[in-house]
Amino acid sequence: MNSDEIIDALEITAKLLELHNENPFKVKAYTVAAYKLSKLRYDFEGKSQEDIEAIEGIGKGISSKINELIKTGSTLELSELLKKTPEGIVKMLGIKGLGPKKIRQLWNELNLESVGELLYACNENRLITLKGFGEKTQAQIKQNIEFSIHNSNKFHYALIEKPVQNLIDFILEHQSELQICVVGQLARKYEVIDKVEILLDGEVSLDMSAFENKIPLKVDYFFCKPNEFFYKLVELSSTAEHLEKIDFDSLNDTEFFDDEEIYEALNLQYIEPELREGLNEVLLAKQNNIPKLIELDDLKGVLHNHTTFSDGVHSLAEMAEYCKVLGYEYLGISDHSRAAFYAQGLSIEKVIEQQEQIDKLNLTFSNFTVLKGIESDILNDGSLDYPDEVLKTFDFIVASIHSNLKMDEEKATKRLVKAIENPYTSILGHPTGRLLLARPGYPINFKKVIDACAANKVSVELNAHPYRLDIDWRWIWYCLEKNVKISINPDAHRKEGFHDMYYGVCVARKGMLSKEFCLNALNLAELKTFLRK
After folding, report:
1. Is the CB of residue 188 less than 8 Å from the CB of residue 195?
2. What pLDDT score was predicted for residue 240?
3. CA–CA separation, 30 vs 47, rounded Å?
4. What is the pLDDT of residues 111-146, one digit of tens each?
5. What are phi and psi of 437, to 5 degrees?
6. Are both 195 and 61 inside the same structural domain?
7. E strand spans, 207-340
8. What is the DSSP string of 71-127?
9. Residue 17 lies inside a defined structural domain of this protein
């Protein structure tokens, strides 16, 4: 079992134990272990039980369960819990905002044993009869079920891309004469994938099941003749709206040797696959106005990162050293502020201690700088955490909402705008708070928020974590129109998180971002000048 599967097994064990009213200390042990491992992303391959026991926060009892999971794929305890729990109840445990205690209540008092029954009960207004449930709770549960149903059989791009590429590499290793490429959603780098489509110019004579089984979606193959490959490549990697705008059918008898030739034949500037959506890309291509899209190598530094000072896995020094090894010029540290108590947010004393450590660490570097930042919670009234005399000590501030997320559009927009208007705010962090496939995010008036950023010289974060990718790429165009810079940030809680910058760049390109409009494509001197605003 890999790390994610082990974490899932620990989490479901904790929930089932709580559901059946078992020992709360055992529930807490499983819950804490799952949380620790989710931050650590520990590689269990080849590890002994003693190695696992040495992980901070993992005791002897839990390490033995992990060892059992690695060897057998389950545990006796988990198997027994699943045996005495209806399958529908297990699925109910996956509904956001509905914990084991409430599910036990629904099961015992309303005899509900499936998600479908629960949704029907919400529609029948039956939950409000229960103690601890009200109209708002019932409405939230209904909304979360509907959101889950809508997103079933969909997966994050980051989960699909690598196993699909492994499949393609396997085919090419044995049949190098073939031309092969991903098309459809993967070619356009959608943030969420529900189809895997691959184009080939010949038949495959291999058993690919071992690789296909690692892809959680069915793979659809499209076959064509070699002289049709690039025509089919553009056809299958574009939306219908894009094809309608480029008079594509007029080219179907022509052989092309790459996809750039196709756009040249149509008297259009080349349109990258990420842009083939049928929005404004064709009009801009006619005017030769598509900018050179940003690339990973354009980024000079990494902003918005966490260390062991708050809820990160690696120390300040470890994060800095790894960032330098990756070739970046600067690292922005932005641990959580004190209001984020659940994430060990920094007290004022801890802020001072960290800033002193950064000063000492910078003395050890040449051609690399650690910047003093904070991810300041945007409080319920829109103010920032800490008084002004503390805020002014930072090189930059990422202002983010983490609490009281249940807001209507007017409340969320006012709260964000007030934070943006704070003279110390540098970057608006993950503007909607969404978690792809898990939480839709609070509604905001994007134009008002972006207009406020423009007026106050505040950049907008594109949070590069593949579960966030927030701001949505569909609103990058408006940021560019208003001359608002985008900061591609990994929100890294461990050093490996820096690699998530790749996913941020993928969707930034979909939003037609160029390096000129990217905050962390500035070199250190340019960045410092910009941050002075």
Report:
1. no
2. 96
3. 20
4. 999 999 999 899 888 898 899 898 889 999 999 999
5. 70, 0
6. no
7. 219-223, 301-302, 330-333
8. HHSS-HHHHHHHHTS-HHHHHHTTSTT--HHHHHHHHHHH---SHHHHHHHHHTT-G
9. yes
Same domain, 507 and 366: yes
pTM: 0.86
Query: Which domain, by its residues, includes 37?
Result: 3-85
Number of domains in the chain: 3
Query: Which of 39, 66, 85 delimits the end of a domain?
Result: 85
Half-sphere exposure of 55 (CA within 13 A, CB side): 27
User: Cβ distance 486 to 479 under 8 Å?
Assistant: yes
Strand ranges, E, within 380-478: 396-400, 427-428, 459-463
Do 103 and 90 touch, CB atoms closer than 8 A? no
Distance CA(391)–CA(53), nearest Å, equals 41
With a pLDDT cut of 70, the percent of the chain lying above it is: 100
Taking 70 as the threshold, does the pLDDT of residue 533 lie above it? Answer: no
Q: Does one domain contain both 224 and 313?
A: no
Give the CATH number, domain containing residue 370. Answer: 3.20.20.140
Same-domain check for residues 281 and 357:
no
Same domain for 327 and 468: yes
Q: Is the per-residue pLDDT at 43 higher than 90? A: no
| 108 inside domain | no
pLDDT in tens, 179-198: 999 999 999 999 999 999 99
